[in-house]
Predict the 3D structure of the following.
Amino acid sequence: MRPCTRHKPSMDPMYPHPSMTDTVPRTRPRLFGLTEAPTFYPTALEFADPMKYIASIQKEGEKYGIIKIVPPAGYSPGFKLNKETFRFRTRLQKLNSMEGETRANVNYLEQLSNYHISAGTPIHKIPQLDKRPIDLFKLKKQVAREGGYHTVTSRKKWAEIGRSMDYNRKECTSMSNALKSAYYRFILPYENWLSSYKSGQIELPTPRLSFTEPSMPRMKRVALKETVYTMSYDKEEEEEDDEDDLCQVCHEGEEEGDRVVCEGCGDWHCIKCLTAAGGDYGFEDGDEYSLSAFQDKCKQFKHQWFSKKEQIRPDSTVSEEDCEDEFWRLVENPHETCQVEYGADLHSTQHGSALGDLQDPWNLNVIPALPKSLFSHIQADISGMMVPWLYIGMCFSAFCWHNEDHYTYSINYMHWGETKTWYGIPGSDTMKFEESMRKAVPELFEQQPDLLFQLVTMLSPGRLLEDNVSVYAVDQRPGQFVVTFPKSYHSGFNHGYNFCEAVNFALPEWADYGLECVQRYKEYRRQPCFSHDELILNVAEHDKTPETGKWLHKALLSMKTRELKERNALRSLYPTLQQVIKTSPQVSDVESQCLYCHCYSYLSHIACQCTDAIACLDHCKELCSCDISSKTLFVRMTDEQLIQLVNRGPDVTKASLEWLDKVDRTLHESPPTLKALRQLIQEGERISAPEEPLEQLHHKVTQISEWIEQAKKYAIRKHQNRRKDSASREFNGDKFNQIQQLRETAKQIYFDASEVYTIRKTAKLLAEFKERCLALLDSQHTNLEAYREAYDMGTGLNADIPEMVQLKMAITQHTWRKEAPTKLKGHYNSILQCIEDAKECRIPIEDPLYQEIVALEQEGARWAAQYSVIADASSAHLDHYRDLLAASAKIPTPLDTLYHVREVVKLGTETVNSIQQAIQKSTGPQEEKASAADLSRIMHSLQWLPIHIEGSNRVMCEKNSMDLWTQHAEALFESPKQGTHKPLEQRMTSVLSNIATITEGSMTKEMASGLESAGIIKKKKSSNGSTDQYCLCRRPESGWMIECDVCHEWYHGPCVKASRREAKAHTYVCPICDGGQMIPRQIKRPTLEECVLLFEESKSLLFVPKEFDLLSRIIGTVQGFKDRVQSFCRSKTHLGAQDLKEIRSHLRQLEGLEVYLRDETDFLRRKIQTLSAILPSINASSFSSSSVRNYTPSFPLPLSLSPRSSGSFLHSAPQETMAHSPSSTDERVYCLCRRSYNPNGPDAHMIGCDTCHEWFHLSCVNVAPKALPSIEHYMCPMCTKYYTENAVHPTHFYNNSNNNNNGSSNSNSNKHSPIVLPTPPLPPALLPSRNQTVIKLTVRPPTTLPENPPSPTDVLYDRKRKRMDTMSIKENVKREHTMSDDVYVHAI
């Protein structure tokens, strides 16, 4: 047996409609929060015996009233019905009519309508409120609950009535009047009449009151025609024939004034029939179907219904949760009617059973007749109980609340189909269920007292749970059994088309339930299915097994007692009643059932000569009106036979006599042991000993067992654990008294057990302990140790005598007096705790020690009160808290308060001293002033302190000044608009690091050492005096870099805001060489003057800002650099071309600085423009389409001296003029001869100098065209002469160039001074059409430096030479060498 609540899908292979099993499993908790009933999964061995298995799970199943059994894998009973010829008739079910409260509502509206029709005031239309009809039934119940119409009116409760009916007074301003009017007009007349009618004080209707309105629509039970009635009252008509005055509905004659005559047909109708409705409710018959036809109808209905609700798609199925929700919504909705059909209670005797294997013990045709089923002793085939019934369901078809006939078990098997949901109530909650039903629909029970027997009423599990009724649920699927237990109510509904089969059975334990149900049938005059007494007698006659005897004797004894009681009562009432013994079988129901209550009278009955009917002994008078002398009492067994049957007759054998003698000796000679008594019981049951001695022995064993169980709780054993923590125990003496009572009970029962001696010993110990406690408590000289010793002894004995409380109190009092003196010197909280302890241990108030402690507590309370006054005051000063602190030294004070006072005094004193020191230092040097950290600490203290501090106003002013200075600094050293915002200190540190890095080479050793010690700069590694620094920022290589084609300096692309496209262009001129090119900057650089002004502002502050030192270093470093630049600028009267490199170096530093030196920057930029020759501006539109980049320099490019200029520079026209001159590009001159380029002349071939980058005619420099392929590196005559005379490396060319403007005009002369300033190659569109000799390589500076590190220019030409080993100059030939991602070669 494995109880479980999980779902295991089961599929019957014989199921003819597989599509019906496509049920979506449950995915959420059940509706109403119901608990699942258990599901059992028996093993194959357990499944072999149905009765035994169900008996084994009986105790668990009775807790729920319903369980599910899933057979072992492979179980397949088959389906034996002929699906083609099988036909059946259904029942029609209207879901909202099945629900009890909804049906009561509809019935009441019909009664109201009938009454008002009979009174001549028909209801044409039900009044509306809040755009919906007023629920007259609910209104009637709410008014009745509040005390009636007059009570509600006098107490003005109509608004409350409306709220209880879910009306909102704000939306329905006339709610009270509308409800009152509706009740007064429609309900009150009927209720008054009905009350008078029931009390027998009805007033006669007004004579000849005619009306012609038909009744309103109603539920049809026994239908009345919608005709015209006339109510009349005439004494002459009362004397007419009584047969004509019978009601045409009930065929009974009412009082003359209680009738209505129809003017149309003249028929009479009693008021009772006109004002009663719903009393004959039941399910009407539907159509006849075959299985396939009903399946099609079910499938179509379910799909259309849920498609209309938009709950499923055509290719999906309905979940069990959605189906259950929709079912209860329809059942509880009185305004929406849904009619379904149910093929229920189909007799298998007429239609056949679907189970055909009679060898299967779980075949429902076999189960009732199994040997262990009591129904095997019923000789008649009872349809539905002994013979299975079939049930064919469709979606929403339901079976209402009911329990099984005779409170028997039921078992239901699903052959195939969709889920069937069951709701079960355990038999223990049957009374609560019935009370809940009567409470919910009292009107239906008034009309049908036996409503629960009708199987036509539903009530939601949610409503039952509100009344504390236990309700459980289970889902039955194909191939599964559902078992209901005796007396349990159950109901349910189908999720769709399915086929089930059910039958009843009874286990031996059912006998008491069966008798209870028979008595209930008799009370409600319901006809039972079989005779319970006959079944018991058949079992007694045919089953002699010991197992049966265990329960049968009780059933026989109950039957005998009941029967003899009824006979004796009848004989005492009719002493002369004749008695006849009749043992012949009763053939018909008339001969066996009472005429009045319909119960079976198997053992005895009353008969009369005037009728063939009989009556039970309780209804002798109801049989007929004949005299008792004509009636006879027929009995099947005499009184003596009944008694003999129960006592098993003269069955006292020799073994029984010997057993009785043994029992007598065991009980009286010596105290018997429990083992001996149990042996006697076993022996007596084996020999079928008399019941009375056995019952006595059972009772004695039960008494002894219960006594021993009680004794084990109280007995004190030798090795028992002693609990010393007795704080939670109650010392009320219950245990002591219980032990004394156990000792006396043991004497009365008279038995022998070890617990008896233990209890006696325990009682003795406790009595002795109690005497000792009394002696200690009475003594005036008992010390603390004696009390504790006695208390520990009582704890070990688990004593609960009241003296233990007194001992504990004495111990606590002595302990308090011993510890209290030490607490006098403690803090306030210890004093309070000491007082509380004194109260708990009941120290007298007049105790001197107690009074002393109370006096200290009062002083501490006064101190605390004084603190509260000071703390709440807005003008408290530090001296107040100092006074409190001084006073706390003499009295106990609260610890938390004292700690707060100490902190206020300590922090207040420190704050005052800090403010005074800051003010004193404000006139001294800047480095001695208080810092910003001191200001922050003082402000934090002022915020926390609850007192006014002298000088705090000035501190606040200084704080505002400091914040304003910080805002100025923030604005001056602003952070980039994009990216993370950095703190001011971090930004200033970054600026100082930038300044130190850029000016490091030119600053003094002392300044550099100071910055290194501050961590602003790091000592650079160097080799041969050369550092690896580039760009404006003077930092090493990082990322991608670009080289200026004028000064050959390398720049980081982001520093000069150059793009990678510019790096691929023919020519790049840096912002240093291009005097008109400005570097875009994200933020504005602060000037030195602004920094100095900010510095001067900080000196006026009382507190030194934390950024003061950084600002001082920034100003000092920049000022030193400024002085050095100015010194350079003033070093000569006029700076010349030879100073150009140094000018550019200083300008790079100025542009790289994050502090702007405006005058120096502008001066040096103008000087570069002045020293550079002016070139015409380049027309961007003249670039060829193959150019990588259009380049238009913003300043004139320098040119060589012209030999025709008589020793002076050749200056071009101004840029503005040249930009619009069409011939400006033709005025460019080259070579020593200073002639323009003529591609068609004899000197079309030219060669470029790899040092000065000037172009020369081959004839002018004596170079033969044939020698060109062998030239790897070419240096012009001027460069050769210069380097030879000055013994310098070509890279020092620009450092040593002079300003000699004299030159020869002879084109072949090699004596021209090398005064040509380096210029980058022009873009291809501006060059003459000549051979490829212009090569631009964009490479990165070397990442590691050799011993003699080359400059970026050396690296450039070194790589250039390696690539020109196969290059030759030919006219109108263009080559493009792809060298690498970092090298671009363009030649024209």
Notes: The first helix runs from residue 44 to 47. The mean pLDDT is 74. The CA atoms of residues 180 and 1153 lie 94 Å apart. The chain is about 40% helix and 10% strand.
